[in-house]
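anyone seen this seq b4? input:
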Amino acid sequence: MSELPFFVYGTLRPGAHNHDRFLRGRTAAEEPARLPCARLHDGPGHPYAVRAADGEVVGDLVHAAPGAYAGLIAELDRLEDYFGPGHPLNLYTRETCEVVRVHDGAAVRAWVYLATARAGLGAPVAGGDWFSRPRRPVPDAPRTP
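predicted toks r here
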């Protein structure tokens, strides 16, 4: 498995509560990025990204710190209810996607957790930015990329 960076777009973004719980101290770099051809939807305290012909999702490209990759990917898979390719209980699927770094426009391959049919999508998030949506209380068991 290639040690690709992760594209995070919700509660794992820098400044969000799951970033502090799962990523703080385990990353080598974090940089703003966008996922083209995708749409962001509201979920129960966390967002869902899905592929779409139009739209983009705002987020961050996260690079694992040296030696942290294996543990980090395993923990994120558990957080996102990803049990492996095609597993019927997956809430998200982990896929490689092209994301675009904001600072230079370069396309980068990254892991992205995308919603499965089990997710039960809420309303689309205008502008594709989880941080710009109207805030609601977060449930006790937060999740997502």
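The first helix runs from residue 17 to 23. The mean pLDDT is 91. kinda curious what u guys think
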